[in-house]
Specification:
Length: 404
């Protein structure tokens, strides 16, 4: 019997559950100024007290205050909770819950990248259940039943995490220096605005890292064993959009069409992975984030080619499909050649966008703990195409050392 029969069984059970369960898809409005339209719709829905959740860097762009002013003009009282930091942890989430309660909010508007949206999701789940966030981590199935929180509206300002389309929130455990997921369909925002004008100010490095995060979602959802016809189509379309637009958005941040297409790609990749799950790239990247605070997208971009080298033998045809979707397949080449092409293209994209191939902070002394957390995270939760042993993971980590 396979050494991995327990995680395989868990994935098989999840697959059956996925067939029965209906995952909601957030209502999405698109286009320049759709963020203001979303505010209009919140006011029209009768909301009178809204907590806007965002972070400090975004506050400096003036975007959250503009949205808050728009809501206030429509007689909606708004309080801004702008304390969100990268990789929100338990303490931050609990502070946010205090603000929610003190303000007596009727809804939350999350504005920002993955951190503010995930923080808002965690806050709402904590408030609804009255539980500490550490008691909410893991797959929702194991915590039945959980009440629905206040309605969540989301305006993503990066094009990567796809958090606006997922049933998951990532929360950091500072004591353990790792990240955990809270997974529940009730975490999904009810309404989302994809306003490309809000992403034109993103620095190229953030465009690159978040874009590669979106690509990782599409790739891991597609090569995993839990994809459906629907998630596969979303993942391929996201890959196609990223292939055609990420370099453009990186080179010219004001290219509104490229920005809008990257937002669409991030949303589609989010929809794909929230059902089909991710894989070892995320499992390892989460540890690099938890331990060394490597930004999530950057960690994924660095780890992805190595994990794909490892998985390739089990998903050659799938990687070749992705190469065709990205528009980089070689005509007349076989699947193995195109799978290699896909992995090479990811390395080329990283290099062209200034993404390093190693992690400066990584220490060999941390390998055991990174591997233990990564394999625990992945096995039984992610639909892995090829299972990894500790030594396989160790081999990948060695290649990420800056001494290489
Ligand atoms: Fe991600």
């Amino acid at each position: 019997m396979s050494a991995y029969w327990i995680p395989r069984l868990q994935i098989a059970v999840n697959k059956i559950a996925l067939k029965v369960l209906r995952f909601p898809v957030p209502e999405t409005i698109r286009g320049v100024d759709s963020s203001l339209t979303l505010c209009d719709e919140m006011a029209a829905a009768g909301l009178q007290r809204v907590l806007l959740v965002t972070d400090g860097p975004l506050m400096r762009t003036g975007i959250p205050e503009r949205l808050a002013a728009h809501l206030r003009q429509r007689d909606v009282a708004v309080e801004v909770f702008s304390d969100v930091e990268p990789d929100p942890d338990y303490a931050l989430v609990l502070r946010g819950v205090e603000r929610l309660n003190a303000f007596n909010a009727q809804a939350v508007l999350a504005v920002g990248g993955g951190s503010p949206i995930d923080c808002a999701k965690s806050m709402l789940m904590c408030q609804a259940t009255g539980k500490h966030p550490s008691k909410l981590t893991g797959v929702w199935l194991y915590h039945l039943p959980r009440p629905h929180g206040l309605p969540l509206y989301a305006i993503p300002t990066t094009s990567g995490t796809g958090s606006e389309a997922t049933v998951a929130a990532i929360v950091s455990d500072r004591a353990e220096q790792t990240k955990y997921s809270i997974i529940d369909p009730k975490l999904l925002p009810i309404k989302v605005a994809l306003d490309p004008a809000l992403t034109v100010g993103l620095p190229p490095a953030v465009t690159a890292a978040t874009g590669m995060d979106a690509l990782t979602h599409a790739v891991e959802a597609y090569i995993g064993t839990m994809g459906t016809k629907e998630t596969n189509a979303w993942a391929l379309r996201a890959t196609e959009l990223i292939g055609a637009n990420l370099s453009k958005a990186y080179a010219l941040g004001t290219d509104m069409e490229a920005r809008a297409n990257m937002q669409e790609a991030a949303l589609l990749a989010g929809l794909a992975f929230t059902r089909a799950t991710v894989g070892y790239v995320h499992a390892i990247a989460h540890q690099l984030g938890g331990l060394y605070h490597v930004p999530h997208g950057l960690a994924n971009a660095i780890v992805m080619p190595h994990v794909l080298d490892f998985c390739k033998s089990a998903c050659t045809d799938r990687l070749a499909d992705l190469a065709r979707a990205a528009g980089i397949a070689v005509a007349g080449a076989n699947d193995t050649e195109n799978a290699d092409r896909m992995i090479a293209w990811i390395r080329e994209m990283n290099a062209a966008m200034g993404i390093p191939s190693t992690v400066n902070a990584l220490r060999e002394a941390d390998f055991d703990r990174i591997i233990a957390h990564a394999l625990t995270e992945a096995h039984g939760t992610y639909a892995i195409p090829r299972y990894m042993q500790k030594d396989d993971a160790r081999g990948i980590l060695r290649q990420l050392l800056a001494t290489n």
